[in-house]
Amino acid sequence: MSLALKYRPKHFSELVGQESVAKTLGLALEKGLLAHAYLFSGLRGSGKTSSARIFARALQCAKGISATPCDACSSCVESLQGTHLDTIEMDGASHRRIEDVRGIIEQSRYKPSLGRFKIFIIDEVHMLTKEAFNALLKTLEEPPAHVKFILATTDPFKLPATILSRTQQFHFKKIPLKAVVAHLKFIFEKEDVDFEEPALEMLARSGGGSLRDTLTLAEQAISYGDQSVSALATSQMLGLVDSKILEEFFNALIAGTSVESLLRTLAEHDTAMVLEEMARFLKEAMFSQKWSLGVLEPFMSAVAQAQPLLNYGADGDFVLALNTLKMQASLQQTPQTATPKPAPTTQAQLPAQAPTPPTAPQAGPKELFQQFIAKIESTNAELGRVFREFLVFQSFGNGVLFLHSSADEGANLLLRQHYKTLIVPCLKEVFGPSARIETDKSKPRPLEQFKENNPSLMQAMQDKLGTTDGKVEDF
Prior knowledge:
Elements: H1 3-6, H2 19-31, E1 37-42, H3 48-60, H4 74-81, E2 87-91, H5 98-108, E3 118-123, H6 130-141, E4 147-153, H7 161-164, E5 168-172, H8 177-190, E6 194-195, H9 197-207, H10 211-224, E7 228-229, H11 231-238, H12 243-255, H13 260-267, H14 271-287, H15 293-311, H16 316-332, H17 365-379, H18 381-390, E8 391-397, E9 400-405, H19 409-431, E10 436-439, H20 447-453, H21 455-465
Parallel strand pairs: 1-4, 1-5, 2-3, 3-4, 6-7, 9-10
Antiparallel strand pairs: 8-9
């Protein structure tokens, strides 16, 4: 049996990283505050289907409705085996037609034969057709007293608003890295698998906040290392870049020595993976204060600008080489801070007026962006954390604040919820009444603006692609 199935949670207390959802559902069961329809949304492998099954088993338990089902009565045993007659699971991806929904409506008319309720769990519900949603709508709004619906989806924005308004919604967030590592450690100890702590962090990062994906990778790592999970073997299996190589690479850039051999080593890996590992390494270096912010900022900016180029179809080796050149160029630039010294003046030459107080230097776009985040953070700490973690400043011009976004589904949901009520007012207050936001996920930067801001990059792209008309139309 796979690790994901063997260690699938059977009670709310076993859910990893979803404490708020588990607490809310548990209290609802204990106090009898039950809705007729629930919607569980969030990243794949975050516990939506497992929570739906636990919730259904708690409702059907013969010893009474409670947050902790007994697991011993006939209803609990059959629920654990997936054979309970009154708990019907349906995959919305393969049963998406109106005929399938009509079957649910027909079954809902009959009272339960074994349990307390007839419970319908529909996974990936966003895959249902428009006609199927319309057919489900009336039953979902006013179901018989003995019917409960539990819908699960990875994309709640594809559901009609009429469906969303008739369900009690729970969002399953991305599972924190520390929680995933702790769960992996618990499983490896129970399975008597030798492991190294850095290897667990590699697996957790590669899982991307999905516990199921992480456990699948963990099984692969156990097989690859023959019941031993080491950091070296795990990095080789996952194709990750050794952090020692990255440290040597950035140290060589700072020292001004050759990075040619290190660049060839990095080119052996997937470019997207290399840029992702660079971003992670620089983030850790910032927290540990390994280098000054004056060194880290241009490095981070170069990596952020390099990542979108891969989406345009640019050659990976070229993007990596260009990224290195931009880092080297940023270190060679020296700020022009010297100002001409004014000629000395006598008391007689001074104008007869009150001294003018010194004016504070005008803040640049990056400083304004930090003020913008701070203003949001003072009102909503969680939203401020999303901005700091997932959104990177790119440029500001003509009233447009351009950001690079790496937000996941949960972060996007939070951003959309507060966009009009909080984000836009703070944006206009800091950047002006006509300011607006664009991200490289929602709308790519105009080509003319890209040419204007990156003339050397455009020339390099022309040389690489061999264009003859002096234009680069699409990359």
